Amino acid sequence: AAARGGHTLYVPRGALWGCEDIARMDSAGTLQALKVTMTKSPGSFRAQGWLSPRVAAAVASGTRTVLYQGPLRPLCPLVPNNVNSMAAAALAAPQLGWDGVTACLVADPSVPDCHIIEVEVTAVPEGGRALTVTSTRRNPAQPGHVTGSATRHSFWSSVQACTGHGGCLKLC
């Protein structure tokens, strides 16, 4: 929509580590797979719809629970406060997009004071063997908060870096 309208879309990376690298691989046509796993304390999720009872069950069980694993698109409306980094991944990788990016949401009571974001990237260079990169970010967070404390700084610094109007999508 931004390209059709002659506008620039700025996407702050937030807690997504490696956003620019993902965008470069996607642009080069080498990005094959992208999975973002977000692990938080069960009390940090603000789930809606059919996901809400799963979060409640995870709270009651007190055990690590995979709440969702699959395409990103159906997850976004269920936990809009919790999947911003995943949404940034889909925007960084438009060839995979909302249906090609794999999202995994995990409730884990053993991490009450941090959010763990794991990004798994698979790229295949022209005629080459697969390149895989996995990064793990442990973001300090207050118990029950949906956003980690380091995300605010990352978001703000990426907004400050946004300048110019060279293209239809600028990952900051």
UniProtKB/TrEMBL annotation:
UniProt GO BP: NAD+ biosynthetic process
Q: Which InterPro entries match?
A: Asp_DH (IPR002811)
Q: Which SUPFAM superfamilies match?
A: Glyceraldehyde-3-phosphate dehydrogenase-like, C-terminal domain
User: Which GO MF terms are attached to this record?
Assistant: aspartate dehydrogenase [NAD(P)+] activity
User: Where's the Aspartate dehydrogenase domain?
Assistant: 63-151
Which Pfam family name is an example for this entry? Asp_DH_C
> PANTHER family, alphabetically?
ASPARTATE DEHYDROGENASE DOMAIN-CONTAINING PROTEIN, L-ASPARTATE DEHYDROGENASE-RELATED
What name appears for this protein in its UniProt entry? Answer: ASPD dehydrogenase
* Gene that specifies this protein: Aspdh
